[in-house]
Amino acid sequence: MGGGTHHPHGGSAEGGPWEVLLPAAAVALLAGGYLLLAHRARARRPAPGWGRWRTASFLAGCAVLAVALLPPVAPFAHEDFRGHMVQHMLIGMYAPLALVLGAPVTLLLRTLPAGRARRLTGLLHSRPLRAVARPVPALLLSTGTLPVLYFTPLFDATMDRPFLHWLMHAHFLLSGCLFAWVIAGPDPAPARPGVPARLVVLGVAVAAHATVSQLLYGGFLVDVHAPIPQVRGGAEIMYYGGDIAELLLAAALVTTWRPVRRGRRAAVRPAPATS
User: Fold this and answer.
1) How far is CA 255 from CA 55, 106, 195, 249, in A?
2) Is the peptide bond before 72 cis (omega within 30 degrees of 0)?
3) Exposed, middle or buried by CB within 10 Å (0-12, 13-18, 19+), for 91?
4) What are phi and psi of 74, to 5 degrees?
5) 179 and 138 Cβ atoms separated by less than 8 Å
6) Tens of pLDDT, residues 55-83
7) Nearest to 135 by CA among 227, 82, 200
């Protein structure tokens, strides 16, 4: 943890026009594609339709992504470690939760032709996806990579190289979506365990976030070249912002818990044979 400034990559805090146009276009395409699929789902099956709150959730996730990737947050993230941490929380925790709660895979399955829907279902049950679509691998890919980023020279390398910087954003988003989907996503997940196991993994994620943020605040093992007040401020944002995001994820998980009642189990139990 050095005393220098948190320098912007590419030599300019603002970057070029593409720094604004490309992420804005990508987010607009994402939102527009979802709205088109939702319209098709309502047109094909008017009775069930498509839940408005699902659509609102996905669009909220797109809005959070836009806030994170566009001014004023993006230039702030280039110049100040606290801005980076705000951007990290938005891209890696808040946007993924809202996007996942929009159930985009279920929407695809409802709107794709039968052949493509079967291929998508086959992908969901494929061995590689089943290997990562479990709570522990998802935790390692999301929270487990934080020490690698902040306790090695990797973070400063991402600030100096635009390609690595955008790759870091992609990792935050994809790993955050994977973790939110495995823990509390409404979309089908073939390798998802029961709710108690997922709550345990979520508790481990809370503890891991707290540990990394406390190490950042204390300056232990940290390899981030930024002023100490910035690093401590970023650590506080990670600590409190991570807690809020994980509480929201826990709330989403609990709302999906549908325990089977004993009476219901008895009702479906086969009756004994009579002579």
Assistant:
1) 18, 18, 11, 10
2) yes
3) buried
4) -60, -50
5) yes
6) 999 999 999 999 999 999 999 999 999 99
7) 200
